[in-house]
Amino acid sequence: MPSFTSSFDRAPNTARLREVAMAALLAALMLTGIEAWLRLMGGQTSFPLSTDRWVANLEEALSHDDPHTTVLLGASRIRSSFDSATFFGRFPDRPLFYLATSGESPLALITFLAEKTTFSGNVIVALSAPSLEAGQEHTQRFIVERFTKEWNLDKRLNHRIGDLVTGSLVVRQEYYSLANLSKSLADDDLPMVPYWRRHGANGESSYDFSRVPNPLQGAQRPLTQALVVDKEAWERNLDGLLRDVRTLHRRGATVALVRFPTSSVLRANERLTWPRTDYWDRMAKAEGAIALHFEDYESLRRFELPDMSHVDRVEKPRFTSALLDLLESNGMTWRAD
After folding, report:
1. Number of H helices, E strands in the chain
2. Where would I find the beta strands (DSSP E) of 52-203?
3. Looking at 8-79, which runs of residues are DSSP E strands?
4. Scanning 42, 234, 273, 300, which has the fewest C-beta atoms within 10 Å of its C-beta?
């Protein structure tokens, strides 16, 4: 009887294992087919802009003893407009780290660098008047929280292993997730290959607007009157910015506050709500800071912005070269003393 019972119990388990193995095989074949199709169509790998990527970059930046170590703070404008290849073409041995998220103010990271670290390298900050709006001092705090409270060897290894996989598979790009592909097929709308937006392992982005049928789709309309600004909160954040830049400067860091280009309706709306003399010009007075506003330099004004806010990937090298020229002429250095 025990022998009969044991054999009876094993049969369903064996069948179940066969089903699982067959499902795994079919899934592997499907993924292989999708991967092959994407590569044939010109698909490229792209890395997710995850919290762990920014935390890993922050950790590495703080570990460098090169006095010319450079960190890029801000959001998508600096992440997609600053070309690392152009930078390393000029300064091949200087460490460079992207700490720019999407649509968020860098105030929390500036405060962290000033108050909680001994960083004394180069800090290039993409900043605008709205960066100091109420609540913006918190938006990148999640990076600081992750780094100071949760980052450990296990998370570091998981991040690196994940990158090894992601760097090998086009299908790991966020746009080509199985959910997106399934939706595209259901809608009879095959996904764009290659996709117009791509992210590197270093956190840099590249925008190919030639692949976007209408970059201005959904763009904002002209304002008829200025938006309401919480001026008390803005003043408070301005005081914090001036304090943090002063702290970094006195420690030996070189800080550049850069107003990246915007155009058309977006720029007109910005002027209406954020008059330069009331906002940017006061930010630019930060002690020891290099302050560059794109409107003051023809070399930064001349670029077409397909979506009124970002530089196309084709223009990235020229834009970065122009920005580096201005930064160097204003005192930021990457050359040996």
Report:
1. 13, 7
2. 70-74, 96-100, 122-126, 197-199
3. 70-74
4. 42
Q: What is the pLDDT of residue 187?
A: 66
Residue with tokens 């002209």: 222
Distance of CA 29 to the CA centre of its chain: 33
d(CA 151, CA 230): 35
Q: Which helix (H) or strand (E) holds 80?
A: helix 76-81
pTM, two decimals, is 0.89
First to last CA, the chain: 87
For residue 263, the 8-state DSSP code is -
User: Strand, coil or helix: what is 255?
Assistant: strand
Instruction: Provide the token pair at 270.
Output: 């910005």
188-195 contacts, C-beta under 8 A, 24 or more apart = 193/38, 193/41, 193/42, 193/43, 194/41, 194/42, 194/43, 194/44, 195/43, 195/46
Backbone torsion region of residue 106, taken as left when φ is above 0, otherwise alpha when ψ lies between -120 and 50, otherwise beta: alpha
- Cα–Cα distance, 222 to 188 (Å, whole number): 35
- C-alpha torsion sign, points 297, 302, 306, 308: positive
Region of 288 please: left (phi>0), alpha (psi -120 to 50) or beta.
Answer: left
| Cβ–Cβ < 8 Å for 49, 173 | no
E-strand stretches of 1-80? 70-74
DSSP assignment, residue 185? H
67-93 burial: b if 16+ Cβ within 10 Å, else e? ebbbbbbbbbbbbbbbbbebbeeebee
pLDDT on residue 194? 85
